[in-house]
From TrEMBL:
<dbReference type="Pfam" id="PF10396">
    <property type="entry name" value="TrmE_N"/>
</dbReference>
<dbReference type="InterPro" id="IPR005225">
    <property type="entry name" value="Small_GTP-bd"/>
</dbReference>
<keyword id="KW-0819">tRNA processing</keyword>
<keyword id="KW-0547">Nucleotide-binding</keyword>
<feature type="binding site">
    <location>
        <position position="113"/>
    </location>
    <ligand>
        <name>(6S)-5-formyl-5,6,7,8-tetrahydrofolate</name>
    </ligand>
</feature>
<dbReference type="InterPro" id="IPR006073">
    <property type="entry name" value="GTP-bd"/>
</dbReference>
<feature type="binding site">
    <location>
        <position position="240"/>
    </location>
    <ligand>
        <name>K(+)</name>
    </ligand>
</feature>
<dbReference type="GO" id="GO:0005829">
    <property type="term" value="C:cytosol"/>
</dbReference>
<keyword id="KW-0963">Cytoplasm</keyword>
<feature type="binding site">
    <location>
        <position position="223"/>
    </location>
    <ligand>
        <name>Mg(2+)</name>
    </ligand>
</feature>
<feature type="binding site">
    <location>
        <position position="238"/>
    </location>
    <ligand>
        <name>K(+)</name>
    </ligand>
</feature>
<comment type="subunit">
    <text>Homodimer. Heterotetramer of two MnmE and two MnmG subunits.</text>
</comment>
<feature type="domain" description="TrmE-type G">
    <location>
        <begin position="209"/>
        <end position="367"/>
    </location>
</feature>
<dbReference type="GO" id="GO:0002098">
    <property type="term" value="P:tRNA wobble uridine modification"/>
</dbReference>
<feature type="binding site">
    <location>
        <position position="244"/>
    </location>
    <ligand>
        <name>Mg(2+)</name>
    </ligand>
</feature>
<feature type="binding site">
    <location>
        <position position="446"/>
    </location>
    <ligand>
        <name>(6S)-5-formyl-5,6,7,8-tetrahydrofolate</name>
    </ligand>
</feature>
<dbReference type="GO" id="GO:0003924">
    <property type="term" value="F:GTPase activity"/>
</dbReference>
Length: 446
């Protein structure tokens, strides 16, 4: 907590308005908050007995038209720590209790105003690290994920109901040939889910950033590049080969994308144990990196270190930077392009040349230039991703049962599992433990 212009102290629950009335006085002293209309704002003072504490504005939002669907009172007071605490203490003394982290949003969820995916979007909005992350979270808050999940669930429950009905009443409901129809619908649902899952990588990248590793042999200019990108002398640049031994991790913003950079000791064919660790690290991080930036020293011929890196980046998303173009180059862009089979950009880390193309190139590679939020849903939440994967597995089992001409009640079991896995995304059929874990990640007062 620190001093600010304005603080908001808020209360939710059936006693919220009556508790506020015990402390609030209008300028003329004749107004009761309980008598006021919902969604109105009232000027006045907070009193502790006969002592005036602060001049405030009080907002009244009566349930169910409020964030929590309960009566909500917000007191806008002056933003000093002492005065805010004092008002909070007074409310508690008069019957309120401090909220748990995320309790307002939890109540909104428990009272059915939002589903779990929307509640998670709230925390993502608060934690958004970039404009892109914010946009996708807002779309999730508006219910884009909820709506999609609901539709697929509706299809599934329809089929479950049909099977149950047919099995109960075989004389009137014909189930022959149903398997084929169902197969088509299951496949369609699975396609929808695959499409959602295919957005999860970009979704994660949007939310957390692109895990990027810079590789290149010693002295190629990796640290210099990192420093330019960071805009500060944070990595130690040296003239001696192979001294960048520590692994550095930094997040940098290129426009509205985030690169989570892991600098490495460079890839080097070596017997030296300590250097070897660096090489191992580079290999390991290159393996699970989203993007590899390979820095080539244009003033030296490619050697066995470069060959090793080139083989490492073959099947990855990589950008090759031909560095030191301010000096005479012994490698041409065309030759290098042939060699690496990846896009090559000319740069000078020292003179800071050619770097704006890097940002454009990354956007092209990851987001096809520009991200569209209008109709596209991105799965940014890993919990949602694993639930979708479980759903897809259950649907695969339904398909197998149909193809093996198993009895119909086998289909319903796996359809039901699919239905429940999807339900966990929006918060239906989830246990209290999971709910508590999710809301404990929230900050106080949200
Ligand atoms: P690293 O070992 O790959 O991290 O390489 P460094 O970033 O430490 O750079 C090694 C040397 O190359 C340093 O002396 C840098 O100043 C120099 N260097 C890096 N980039 C450039 C460049 O674009 N032009 C020139 N002339 N020198 C550079």
């Amino acid at each position: 907590m620190s001093n600010a212009g304005i603080s908001i102290v808020r209360m939710s629950g059936m006693d919220a308005i009556s508790i506020a009335d015990r402390l609030y006085r209008s300028p003329k002293g004749n107004k009761r908050l309980a008598d006021q209309l919902s969604h109105t704002i009232h000027y006045g003072y907070i009193y502790d007995g006969e002592e005036m504490i602060d001049e405030v504005m009080v907002l009244i939002m009566k349930g169910p038209s409020s964030y929590t669907r309960e009566d909500v009172i917000e007191i806008d007071c002056h933003g000093g720590i002492v005065v805010t605490k004092k008002i909070l203490e007074l409310l508690i003394k008069n019957g309120a209790r401090p909220a748990e982290p995320g309790e307002f949003t939890k109540r909104a969820f428990l009272n059915g105003r939002i589903d779990l995916s929307q509640a998670e979007a709230v925390i993502d909005i608060i934690n958004a690290k970039s404009d892109m992350a914010l946009k996708s979270s807002v779309s999730q808050l508006k219910g884009s994920v909820l709506e999609k999940v609901r539709n697929i669930r509706k299809n599934i429950i329809h089929d479950i109901a049909f099977i149950e009905a047919a099995l109960d009443d075989p004389e009137h409901i014909e189930i022959d040939g149903f398997g084929e129809e169902l197969l088509e619908r299951v496949e369609n649902n699975q396609k929808e889910i695959s499409r959602l899952l295919s957005t999860a990588d970009n979704g994660r990248i949007m939310k957390e950033g692109i895990k990027t590793v810079i590789v290149g042999k010693p002295n190629a200019g990796k640290s210099s590049l990192l420093n330019v990108l960071l805009g500060e002398e944070r990595a130690i640049v040296t003239e001696i080969e192979g001294t960048t031994r520590d692994t550095l991790e930094e997040s940098i913003y290129l426009g509205d994308i985030i690169l989570n950079l892991v600098d490495t000791a460079g890839i080097r064919v070596t017997e030296d144990y300590v250097e070897g660790l660096g090489v191992e690290k580079a290999r390991a991080s290159a393996k699970d990196a989203d993007l590899i930036i390979y820095v080539v020293d244009g003033t030296r011929q490619l050697d066995e270190n470069d060959r090793e890196i080139i083989s490492l980046i073959k099947a990855k998303k990589a950008i090759v930077l031909l560095n030191k173009i301010d000096l005479e180059s012994v490698i041409s862009k065309e030759d290098l392009e042939k060699e690496v089979n990846q896009p090559v950009l000319l740069i000078s880390a020292k003179e800071e040349l050619g770097l704006s193309r890097l940002e454009e190139k990354i956007k092209e590679m990851f987001f096809q230039g520009e991200l569209k939020f209008n109709d596209e849903i991105y799965i940014t939440n890993m919990r949602h991703k694993s639930a979708l994967m479980e759903t897809s597995e259950s649907l695969s089992k339904v398909k197998e049962s149909i193809e093996a001409s198993m009895p119909e009640d086998f289909y319903s079991i796996d359809l039901m599992n699919a239905y429940e896995s999807l339900g966990t995304i929006i918060g239906e059929s989830v246990g209290e433990d999971l709910i508590n874990t999710i809301f404990s990640e929230f900050c106080m007062g949200k």
